[in-house]
């Protein structure tokens, strides 16, 4: 499918429904759950009743060949509240890992347990990060050892969204330490499994409506069939890794989700930017609205341009992922990098525009400021995104920009006769020579025919 900025009627309806839900259900509850630091169960249930919280919903979003449904949805939901939004989408991250590494039978068995249904809400978590590892996925210490018909997990995980309260936790663990990220596998651990414990709930700067915890695994035994995929598939993957082939399931999940994190950051950026513009238009000082002062308007102008630029990067990366177009220069990381950093700047500028009122909880901008910072940290810090992009430069940048690599019909008639072709250029030159000798009426007609239109 060709990349286009034209949204379908279904896209517009999705944006309308998501924005209405964010405005009428999420935003009124945002301050409450930010203060309580509790899972917003009633909001999750309302999202489920609206059709926004189920494995089939996310599968349908991911199946959109334009790649735009999910980022459109996420931007609106996170415009409402980043913490509540994260609670709603965390099970989708675990679902992505299940879809990447699991079997069809495991997908059918466990996906419903990750979401539940209206009136019986369930949660899921993806446990990858560890205290000593951070963004270094190759430095994980949690081990998984096969013991008869069971796998035994031992280790620690931290920064785990829904950790300790999830009905299903997908745990990334090392099965062959010598193979780095390629020597890892993922395991399904249901709630209540002996040996998995919540060490503590983390007291965070922002996203406080999203439950985040540290987990420990001590002699945590699970049945062999709760390895994502099959043991034969795992052994085949390990053999390939020993030959220098293959890839990490966790890294595959991150590659898919970075443009989605960009969309989340855009929601916070847009909320901050819109509020700042509205406040600056209403707030009067020195004889008029403060937005008429260049010191206020110009920073907002830069943010407006950067939000749109980041959104285009997000849409491009999402379209590429949906259509199997390889990331040439780390385009997924580009979208996450730019969206996360403009979110921080937009929120900071909103606080600045609102002055003292922006620094206290009377206005929502201080919350957005706290929320925005997370996007430059999780799913790979900004420094990691720059490393991912930087590693492509020596070999890929010399091949030209992304549009030099995009798929398309390289043999069609438009190659020889389309806009910009040599044939059209020669025809235009011939017409200009002919026009010099043509009557005025004929020249006027020819000019109209040759005009590119308005």
Q: What structural class do helix, strand and pairing data support?
A: alpha+beta
Q: Please report the first level of CATH classification, the CATH class of the domain at 248-401.
A: Mainly Alpha
| Cα gyration radius (Å) | 26 Å
Low-pLDDT residue intervals, each spanning 5 or more residues:
none
- How is the largest sheet built, in terms of strand order? 4-5-9-8
Biggest β-sheet description = 4 strands, antiparallel
**Beta strand count:** 11
Estimate percent helicity.
Answer: 40-55%
CATH topology tier name of the domain at 248-401: Butyryl-CoA Dehydrogenase, subunit A, domain 3
Question: What's the helix count?
Answer: 15
Outline the secondary-structure elements.
Layout: H1 9-36, H2 41-49, H3 55-63, H4 69-80, H5 82-101, H6 104-115, E1 116-117, E2 120-121, E3 124-127, E4 143-147, E5 150-161, E6 168-174, E7 184-190, E8 196-201, E9 212-223, H7 231-242, H8 249-282, E10 284-285, E11 288-289, H9 294-322, H10 331-354, H11 365-372, H12 382-396, H13 414-417, H14 422-435, H15 440-450
Parallel strand pairs: 3-6
Antiparallel strand pairs: 1-2, 4-5, 5-9, 6-7, 8-9, 10-11
Helix pairs in contact: 1-4, 4-5, 4-8, 5-6, 5-8, 8-9, 8-10, 8-11, 9-10, 10-11, 10-12
């Amino acid at each position: 499918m060709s990349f286009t900025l034209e949204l379908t009627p279904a896209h517009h309806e999705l944006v309308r429904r998501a924005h209405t839900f964010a405005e009428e259900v999420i935003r009124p509850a945002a301050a409450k759950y930010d203060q309580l630091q509790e899972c917003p169960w009633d909001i999750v249930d309302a999202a489920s009743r609206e059709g926004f919280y189920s494995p089939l919903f996310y599968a349908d979003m991911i199946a959109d060949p334009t790649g735009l449904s999910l980022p459109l949805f996420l931007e609106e939901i996170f415009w409402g509240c980043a913490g509540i939004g994260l609670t709603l989408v965390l099970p989708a991250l675990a679902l992505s890992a299940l879809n990447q590494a699991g079997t069809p039978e495991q997908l059918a068995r466990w996906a419903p347990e990750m979401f539940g249904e209206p009136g019986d809400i369930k949660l899921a978590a993806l446990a990858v990060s560890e205290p000593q590892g951070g963004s270094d996925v190759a430095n994980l210490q949690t081990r998984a050892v096969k013991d008869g018909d069971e796998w035994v997990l031992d280790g620690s995980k931290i920064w785990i969204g829904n950790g300790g309260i999830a009905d299903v936790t997908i745990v990334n663990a090392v099965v062959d330490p010598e193979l780095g990220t390629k020597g890892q596998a993922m395991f399904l651990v249901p709630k209540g499994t002996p040996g998995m414990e919540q060490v503590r709930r983390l007291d965070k700067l922002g996203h406080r409506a999203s439950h985040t915890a540290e987990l420990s695994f001590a002699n945590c035994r699970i049945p062999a069939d709760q390895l994502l995929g099959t043991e034969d598939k795992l052994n085949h993957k390990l053999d390939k890794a020993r030959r220098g082939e293959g890839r990490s399931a966790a890294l595959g999940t991150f590659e898919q989700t970075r443009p989605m994190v960009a969309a989340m950051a855009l929601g916070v950026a847009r909320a901050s930017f819109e509020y700042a513009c509205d406040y600056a238009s209403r707030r009067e000082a020195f004889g008029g609205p403060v937005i008429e002062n260049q010191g206020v308007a110009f920073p907002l102008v830069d943010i407006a341009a950067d939000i749109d630029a980041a959104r285009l990067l997000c849409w491009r990366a999402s379209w590429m992922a949906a259509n199997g177009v390889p990331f040439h220069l780390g385009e997924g990381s580009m979208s996450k990098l730019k969206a996360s950093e403009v979110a921080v700047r937009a929120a900071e500028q909103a606080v600045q525009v609102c002055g003292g009122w922006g620094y206290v909880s009377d206005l929502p901008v201080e919350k957005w400021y706290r929320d925005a910072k997370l996007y430059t940290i999780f799913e790979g810090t900004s420094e990691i995104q720059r490393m991912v992009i930087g590693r492509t430069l020596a070999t890929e940048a010399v091949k030209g920009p992304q549009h030099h690599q995009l798929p398309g019909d390289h043999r069609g008639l438009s190659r020889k006769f389309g806009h910009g072709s040599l044939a059209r250029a020669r025809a235009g030159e011939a017409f200009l020579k002919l026009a010099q000798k043509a009557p005025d009426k004929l020249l006027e007609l020819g000019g109209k025919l040759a005009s590119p239109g308005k």
